[in-house]
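Entry type: protein chain
Record version: 2
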Amino acid sequence: MPLPTSPVIRRARLGAELRQLRRREALTLEQVCERLGWASTSKLSRIELGQSRPDLADVLDLLDVYEVPSLQRDALIVIARDAATSRGWWKSLGEMGERQRTYAELEAGAAGIVEYQPAIVPGLLQTPAYARLRIVAGQLLDPTVDVEADLRARAARQAVLRRVEPPRYTALVTELACEPGDDPVEVWRAQVGHLLELAALPHVTIRLLQVGAGRRPLPLTPFSCYSFPDPADPRTVMLEALTTDVRLTTATDVDRYERMTDCLLETALPEDETVRLLARRLDG
């Protein structure tokens, strides 16, 4: 079931709004928790940082303390409900690790997604066979990875591109990521064919970045940029590292990555040339 909003982003939005309200009232974390009878400030701190799914009753109590007027109160209650939505929704996706969970929540509510991948095909575009090879390779770093559960989670995430109102999706991928490398040729051919199939969708754009021959050096770290239907929800960048991911939401950080994305878009092959090149590789 697609979400109209992204829970992880709504939690960040709610936390920022509540923190602003507390500061407007010139109250400390300790003073608010004392008024509400909360045992420690950690609960309020986690809500303000968007690190926990809020309980609606707790949010209502906070709005009472801050004496929020009715119109603003109603808007924040809607955001709080969105922020807690994923509990029931998550059951429909089955097992999913914490890293995939963050990406899935971002993708579920995004209006636009731009992904940059310097070495592999992005997860939303992977065939099951190609994804299996990547996940099995990851077991060298983490032997506890459940390959089948990870595959099911990836398939659930990929459904976002096939839903009734999908996000606008752009993949910026280096030529290296679309080379067979050590993969079995049948896996590689199926993956390239899948890219061509997805590129035919009106909301999906795939563009290749060529390397070498004096071209501008490309970033080494994969990243994804997310925008959302509600312009007040914070634009977000995810940086993909080896063992963990970093989420950026401050305007300064996001602006830098959006400028980098613009530079990559200027450098990348146009969409039609990308499709022709992939088709030639497949035929060859």
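Comment: The first strand starts at residue 112 and ends at 117.
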